Amino acid sequence: MKSPSPKEHQRADTLERQRHLKMARSAQAYVRGSTAVFYEWLKSSQGNIPEGPPIWICGDCHVGNLGPVADSKGNVEIEIRDLDQTIIGNPAHDLIRLGVSLAMAARSSDLPGVTTALMLEQMMIGYSESFKPSKKSATAAKKAGKPIRIVLKEALSRKWRHLATERIEDVRPKIPLGRKFWALSKAEHGEIERLFESKNAKLLVSVLRKEASKQKVKVLDAAYWMKGCSSLGRLRYAVLLGIGKRFCLIDIKEAVAAAAPGKNTTGIPRDHAERLVAGARALSPFLGERMTAEKFRGKPVVIRELRPQDLKFEFDRITKEEAVEAAKFLSGIVGRAHARQLTPIQRKKWLSSLNRRRTRLDAPGWLWDCVVELVSAHEAEYLEHCRRYALAQA
User: Fold this and answer.
1) Does 3 fall in a domain?
2) How far apart (Å, rounded) are the C-alpha atoms in residues 251 and 237?
3) What is the rounded CA–CA span in Å between residue 31 and residue 34?
4) Which of 29, 56, 186, 232 is least enclosed, having the fewest CB within 10 Å?
5) What value, to the nearest 5°, has the Cα angle with vertex 249 and ends 220 and 270?
6) Is the pTM higher than 0.70?
7) Range(s) of the domain holding residue 153
């Protein structure tokens, strides 16, 4: 793909085509890019889902949005790593979304339906166990499963050169234009320069790099970034900062309204970027401390530093054992993010609500029913999306 014109209005068609292509590649990819479909279905199923306490939820809790995340000092934990849809809402929505994502991963790996039942069973066990007081770190779990251990080991060993060659294809202070990175207009360049003169941006950089208080921070290069199904069509920029002799790669991303329904509107910032940062700090402290909210030509954006250790899990081909282990471990990550917002009494009450309609397996009936219906709905929507995409290409 050639880099489009820096004229902003000419990017829209390219971005829309790329979004449809990504979502047509697999049913899993379609699930990741179709959050709106998930919440449209939920509207008609509210009576079947337990009503949880109003807390910050991910809102788009699929497998790809979990993974190793580093804090400003380089310590690594496995956390929720994408909070675009975060909102104060029903924590059951995160469990259902994760269950659907795991079920679709099992189907993509040609695993039998029994495996999906076992995954949901272990998912609920992992989530419930995460509510118990424990000094153990999430990353210290020895039974995380091979795919997760591999990604975690890689994250712990990664340095700046790995991030540079992966994201910008070189360790030199230059972002190469091409398939992923596109040229900016003069207006965009000027706005990025202005942005890093703002109080919030300066404060964030000083937190990320201690030397920023003594060294001049320079914008070395910047480009429009075509990345991810959900962000295609929004403002998205990669910025390379120079701080003395060191570099810092920054992601600027437009924040838009969440598809997830909110419950406690008084506690949710009206500015979408501020909402995203607040949700991140509640759910994923390591990630939240590396983010700030700003305005980019009147639109709310989140400024976030990219770290070499930040990786996501991909489950393209997994075994039955790996799938079941991953379900338990990943639900525990989500559980810890939820539990830290609740009092002991609230935790006990919420777990009691979750466990109604138990079957012989440990997954409650309401969760099984939701996942089965949603997998069916997403399969049908995915095929229809592929049909429309094929017709458009003909």
Assistant:
1) no
2) 6
3) 5
4) 186
5) 110
6) yes
7) 8-393
